[in-house]
Amino acid sequence: MLRGKEAAESFGLHVIHANVDAVYVQCRPDTDYEALRLHIEQTAGCPVGLEGVYKWIRFCPSRTDAKCGIPNKYFGAFRHGEVKIRGLALRRRDTPPLLKRMQQAMIERLQQESGLDGCRGAKEDLLGIVADYRDRLKTGKVSTPELAIAFQLSKEPDEYVHDTLSSIAARKLQASGVTLHAGETVRYVICSAKDKVKAWRAMPLALIEMLDYDVAKYCELLDRAALEIL
Question: What is the CATH number of domain 144-212?
Fold first, then answer.
């Protein structure tokens, strides 16, 4: 990887990111991509392919150091239009479908732009998307499945020591007569995240008769998902 990085830099180009199987190079409009690929391949001593040319890409910053990008958390649009996404909320199984759709809508808006300046100029549109989804949460214009959080059991429900929202939901589902084992998935809705009565904090999707959810908690999750992109 270091040899590949040095090869790109010998072309007078800037390497902006690298991980286990890829090197991201900031190129010039006149860059000969095939010559660059071949040079990196020969210098690094291993086969190298050109995955694509990005119109723009964002490496999400670490929470502890804003100047440091997280290796497996990024999104970008290729020149031919396709989008690549890694590590965002919409790729995680524990993200409510409602928030996945919000992130998808935000990225589809950015996908229309040809560069970073255009992406920055789309900020008001992105904030509008976020505001629309927040309004849906606050006015109850959501369905139960849209708020469901998926949790995969790593052990039997009664083996969990801490009362997390996930373990509470799993134990409640088991108490209702449903047999659960490690590896199975439990879907639940956050009803009252900080309720003094722990059993009321989360409800398995299968046991919900009337939708009652923690608006403030879901708005917090919404803001966190929005900030991944903003």
Answer: 3.40.1820.20
Distance CA 153, CA 160 (A): 10
| DSSP type of residue 205 | G
CA-CA distance, 199 to 44, in Å (whole number)? 57
Query: DSSP secondary structure string, 10-67?
Result: HTT-EEEEEETTEEEEE--TT--HHHHHHHHHHHHTS-------EEEEEEEEPSS-TT
Domain locations in the chain as residue ranges: 144-212
| 119-167 residue pLDDT tens | 999 999 999 999 999 999 999 999 999 999 999 999 988 888 888 999 9
* Dist. CA 219–CA 117, nearest whole Å: 29
Which tens digit of pLDDT belongs to each residue from 163-216? Answer: 899 999 999 999 999 888 899 899 999 999 999 999 999 999 999 988 899 999
Model's pTM, two decimal places?
0.88
How would DSSP label each residue in 102-148? HHHHHHHHHHT-SSHHHHHHTHHHHHHHHHHHHHHHHHT---HHHH-
